[in-house]
Write a structure and sequence with these properties.
324 residues; 29% helix; NADP; NAD(P)-bd_dom_sf; oxidoreductase; mRNA 3'-UTR AU-rich region binding
Amino acid sequence: MVKAIRVYELGGPEVLKWEDIEIGEPKDGEIRVKNKAIGLNFIDVYYRKGVYKASTMPFTPGVEAVGVVTAVGPGLTGRKVGDLVAYAASPMGSYAEEQILPADRVVPVPSSIDPIVAASVMAKGMTVQYLVRRCFKVEPGHTVLVHAAAGGVGSLLCQWANALGATVIGTVSTKEKAAQAKDDGCHHIILYKEEDFVTRVNEITSGTGVDVVYDSVGKDTFQGSLACLKARGYMVSFGQSSGTPDPVPLSALAVKSLFLTRPTLFHYVETRDKLLETAGELFANVASGVLKVHVNHKYPLSQAAQAHTDLESRKTSGSVVLIP
């Protein structure tokens, strides 16, 4: 038996239960991993609330972890007991001391990267990789708007976009978060509680608008984000921490011939080759110092409910990690 967080009903952080589970032994193509660190992501909140539907009830949440291989399935090659591996996106179930994983969904963690850093950056960092390299290819001269610029994804997004030569505008809620966003490469910072971000973006860009908006907030920012775009600009809605955006009529996009996409990480790392390529570029940027990972909060896995509470109330910045 191992300890894990289980969800029997949808709702607030209080539905996260700490209990014993049986996970069994790895079958063909599987490995058993003892987790050293588990990344907390907003998608975990979406599943807990039922915004995204878990395939089974009850379920163990979590889509990101780093751990040591403790057993391999029969006939499996390429993985061995003692390997340090990481995974993100799927399958769900990382809020556990140990878990069974498909061997083709894990990647080796370079020895130069601390397991806690790796666990805090896998899902968020691979998300940023596809956002700035494939979803919309950020290049020198582009101007980008990043909402929640001091959050786990936002922090990395600002750094990576800045490294690619873009002018980065970030929105944050507090002066403390503004200071972090500035350190992360934001050229212009908007305190959205004190000023209207659409008006401010208009001033910063002299009325031109931005090439792309990366919006993980959703309902509260969606219409304003569209208004910030230049003609033929890209609206990338990759999260909904404030709620699901209202439906958008196609005619709203026609006004400026806008592009709108709602991507998810899984579809960008569907194949083993894409997974290794995405994680490889991420780890290279961490190792070289292009990306600074802010692991600002650590909680025991047993206190996952408190971590969810703090994440949802915007008390956290940077990455949050659960330690089994």
